Amino acid sequence: MDFELLRQLSNADAIASNENEVRELLKHELVQYQETFQFDGLGSLMVTKKSQQKDAPTIMFAAHMDEVGFMIRYISDIGMAYLTTVGGVENRAKSMQLVRATTRSGDKIEGLLNVKKDSHGEIQQMYVDFGFDSRTELIASGLDIGNMVCFASDCRALAPSEIVAGKAMDDRAGCFALVQAMKDLVDIELAVNVVAAFTSSEEVGTRGGRLTTQIINPDIFFAIDVAKNPELDRSFMNTRKLGAGPMVEFYDKTMVPNPKLIRLVCDVADEESLSYQKDMFKGGGTDAGTAHLEHGGIPACVLGLPLRYCHDPYSLVNKNDLMNMNKLIQTLSKSISSDVIAETNNY
């Protein structure tokens, strides 16, 4: 697998509705599917591997392009840029972090993120010091209200060779695994159409998953996403261990998956001797939460990648988990047929 692509995806900046840097990388990597490219009104990219079988059903895998981050909300007379969050940035990540803003022309300008707290230690305001001394200087640099601000992190390998640290692994790790699977499937004949949806605006309400599902109307939907590993816990209650394989999610607050589909995923993984973990979300949700409610209800399942730290300037991901997710996506694509889908919907 080309892990240079993971570095590029992680280093790209893309909050909700501002995903062009990521989208262009994905379009370049999947150029073999260029004739199938579709887009929703938010900018989600849909890529289709078409079956040669007549009236073949469709399965869809969705990974979101957007990351949590910020936008410039106010500019003070002394040249400070005050921010609003876009998505659920961790509070611990809002202080003394190097960030970069993207101007209208695409220039990158770095600054230091800091906060003001009240007497109880609660964050009242977030601001970036770009080094300017006046509003006039800041505006002259090209910065303005509405500009995207992201962590100025640099993706890199750590001492254990299988561990990669970088920002926005939620969900660039999922995008990476899905891209690799689609590239590996390009010349393989399948009994289903396979759609890879790289969705917009998941972090602000799972919006792209809903719209792409409206457009494609898949017979089965898989969300390829992530979940935060409790880094100090190595007990049996940690079902998100790095290096132990993707997680099959049995529950979250936005969706309880079709039991037959869950069994299918586990059986397919077992038959191929693929490592995986059985997990549940305590809170939150994924694109599957909105997607499974479209078109009268669609069988859906969440396949997750374990991360240490999430919605932070850096997350840690294991290369082996990415490779196993790639294999699981391919294996499911090869295993699902019209008969399998009919049985999944047999109530």
Automatic annotation (TrEMBL):
Zn(2+) 1 binds at H64, D170, D225. It comes from the Bacteria. Pfam families: Peptidase_M42. This is Aminopeptidase. Its cofactor is a divalent metal cation. Zn(2+) 2 binds at D170, E203, H311. It comes from Latilactobacillus fuchuensis DSM 14340 = JCM 11249. One of its GO terms (molecular function) is metal ion binding. The active site is at E202.
